[in-house]
Structures are given as C-alpha cells and as structure tokens.
Design goal:
The complex is a heterodimer. By secondary structure, chain A is an alpha+beta fold. Helix content of chain A is 52%, strand content 14%. Chain A has 2 domains: 108 residues, no CATH class; 51 residues, no CATH class. Chain A has a 3-stranded antiparallel sheet with strand order 1-2-3. The longest helix of chain B has 23 residues. Chain B has a 3-stranded antiparallel sheet. Classes of the chains: A alpha+beta, B alpha+beta. Chains A and B meet through β1, β2, β3 and α6 of A and α4, α6, β1, β2 and β3 of B.
Chain lengths: 188, 200
C-alpha cells in the first residue's frame, strides 16, 4: 500500500504506546471506521472521554492517518498479510495489528450493504380538475408506489412519486433498455 | 367567468390611473417579480419618493396588481372575461389593454408558481440503471446471479432533489415493465379518452 508521508507519520504516532495505551487504541481505530461508515460527517466524533488526555492536534492527525489507511486497504481489497506487514513497518506491535485487522474484517462486511430490493409496483391514474391554488388543472397524472424489502429482511417500505404520461414513458423506456441489456448479456 | 373585485381591492387599484402608463408597466413588472421571488418593501419606498406619494399607496397598488394577476391566472379566465372584469374599475382603454397584456404574458408562469403551493408527492426526474452479475461468494462459487441496480431521481415541488438506490432481479423487472405498460395503456382506453375530452 502506498501511503503519503503525512499518513505514515500519523500511523507511527498511533503505534506509539506513550500516546495511546491498549485501552485507548481500540477506541481510536473503531472511531476511524465509524467516521467512514456514517453518512454525515460528525464534528464531535473525537470527543470521547478516553481520548481527552491526548493532544487534540495529534489526535486529529492519527484519525486522518487511520481513515486513509483503511480506505487504501479497502480499495485494494488487501489480505491479512499485506496489512500486517504494512503496519509492522510503522512499528505496530502484534497486539495492535490484531486489533486493527479484527476491526477491519468486522467493519468491511458492513460496507457491503445491499440497496433495498423491489418487490412490486402499484399505480393510480388521476385526472386533477382543480385544487386550492389553481383551477382548471385538467392534466392526467400517475401516482406510482414501488414496494421494496429493506435489509432488515421482512419489513416492506414504499417509494412513492407522481409523474406525467411523458415521464412514465421515459421511465418505462429506460427499464426496457435495462431488460434488453440483460437479455443480451445472458446470451453471451 | 367574471372576476369579482372587492371594494377594498378596487380602492387599491384606483391609484393606477393617476400615474403614467410607463409607471403602471413598471409596477406590473415589479408585481410579477415579487410573485417569482417574494416582496421587497424597499422598492415601495423608492417608488413613493419618485412619485411623491405615500409608500403605503404604492404598496397597495402593487399588491392589488399581484392579486388581480394571481386570481385571474388561478381561474384561467379568458381574454374577454378579463377585459369585462377590469371594465368595472373605469380605467382608460390604454390602461385596460396594458393590464390585459400583463395577464396574458405572465399567466402560464404564475399558474406554475401557484402549482408549487399545492401539496404533492415528489415527482419523477430520471432513472439510471446498472447491470450487476454476482459470480461468487464466500459460500458458493461459480454463480451467475444477475441484478439490476437503479437510481431513481426525484424532485419535490420546491426544487429539492433526492435520489433513491433500488435493486431488483430480472423477473421482477419484467413484471414492473408489464405493470407500468398497463398503466400507460389505460390512458388510451375509451373511458379515459371520453373523460379527458369532456372535462376541459
């Protein structure tokens, strides 16, 4: 794995026992993974009581180094030996390497999330005549309800939207393109 | 269908014949701009200073115009009906023509703005799709499992866009296509055609 000098320095600090003991180190690593997995950036992610005694600037540097290292690892889909030899270069002892790799394995399975799976679709054709703000609307409109299964298996959610006839034709056209490609691909 | 103007409304619009038609044209432009982007009270003060009248009189005049335009656009009244409704105000022919032009040029846009006020579901914007084939997993090797991933782009009436990522298998995709084609075909049936033709 190729890592910049700044990231290398950050990792060396992470390995330093005077900076983080074996209680604080797992917390730091887990926080690095959590920052990558949550959808929105959380500015208070490093405000943990266990990390209070560490210099904040150094803490941020280590956090950045850890997240960059994780992203490089995931990008190249590294195995245990590659990560271990990489961390050994930065003077990580065996225990810290183990903690890192175990957390890496657990968290990367969470990265392989599946989008919700579509079950069914129902539709409604409407002809709005007027509403409180505009009279003489007089334009047919479709309401489409797409039923899906979420990852939690079993529970069903719906994606609901409206569209005009032209938009529905566009949607169906694109789905038909997908189906045609599927057919062609299956024939190969 | 005639527009019925209240006495207060007629009073507010009564300011318009007292100024030049160029000024009325300018007020009309300001009224449409306010409908598009919201009001700006500073403009009333500037105009009031130039015309040597109260800021409140200018405000009533512009607001009266805004209300005239929104009500006419909402009801989509015809040219003739608009002219007859405005006749009640006793303005000059030139002013009446100016107001009519203002209405005809802007009614489509105003109806569109009013349409955004109605409660509605997000509407369809675009669909992107991708074909994936799962070839193997930890538990099972040498598979061929096709999936279609789709990104559905939706837009709310305020212009807020969102995108939902969905996945489906080939059989469900064919079912979706069939159902939605049935929906499209429904619009061409005699029943729907009769209703669309007769309710205008």
């Amino acid at each position: 794995m190729e890592l910049s000098e700044s990231v290398q320095k950050g990792l060396q600090s992470l390995a330093d026992p005077t900076l983080s003991d074996l209680k604080t180190f797992p917390v730091l690593i887990e926080l690095a993974f959590r920052s990558l997995l949550t959808a929105h950036a959380d500015c208070s992610v490093l405000d943990q009581p266990e990390l209070k005694r560490i210099d904040q600037k150094l803490l941020k540097h280590c956090h950045t180094a850890a997240t960059t290292c994780i992203l490089e690892g995931v990008k190249q889909n590294v195995d245990k030996s590659t990560i271990s030899s990489c961390l050994e270069d930065f003077r990580f002892d065996a225990e810290r390497t183990d903690v890192f790799y175990i957390t890496y394995q657990v968290m990367t399975t969470l990265l392989w999330r599946c989008p919700p799976h579509i079950n069914d679709v129902s539709w409604r054709l409407e002809y709005p005549i007027k509403n409180g703000h505009v009279h003489k609307v007089n334009e047919p409109s479709y309401l489409i309800f797409i039923k899906q299964n979420t990852n939690n298996g079993g529970s069903s959610e719906e994606v609901n939207f409206s569209c005009t006839m032209e938009q529905l034709q566009d949607l169906v056209g694109k789905m038909k393109d997908a189906a045609k490609s599927l057919e062609k691909a299956m024939q190969l | 269908m005639l527009l019925v103007l209240s006495d207060e409304h007629k009073e507010h619009l009564g300011f318009l014949p007292e100024v030049d038609s160029a000024v009325v044209g300018e007020f009309g432009r300001i009224a449409v701009e306010f409908l598009r982007k919201g009001t700006n009270p500073k403009i009333y003060e500037g105009a009031a200073r130039k015309l040597s009248v109260d800021a409140e009189t200018v405000q009533h005049g512009v607001e009266g115009l805004m209300y005239l335009l929104t009500e006419s656009s909402k009801l989509m009244i015809s040219e003739v009906d608009f002219q007859d409704s405005v006749l009640v105000l006793g303005f000059t022919e030139e002013l009446n023509q100016l107001l009519l032009q203002l209405y005809l040029e802007n009614r489509k846009e105003i109806r569109h703005i009013l349409g955004e006020l109605t409660p509605s579901l997000p509407h369809y914007h675009n669909l992107e799709w991708r074909l994936d084939v799962q070839l193997a997993s930890r538990a099972l090797r040498q598979q061929v499992k096709p999936t279609v991933s789709m990104k559905l782009h939706l837009e709310e009436s305020g212009g807020v866009k969102s995108a939902k990522v969905l996945q489906t298998d080939p059989a469900t995709l064919m079912h979706l296509i069939q159902e939605l084609e049935k929906a499209l075909a429904e619009l061409k049936t005699t029943h729907c055609r009769r209703i669309l033709r007769n309710i205008k």
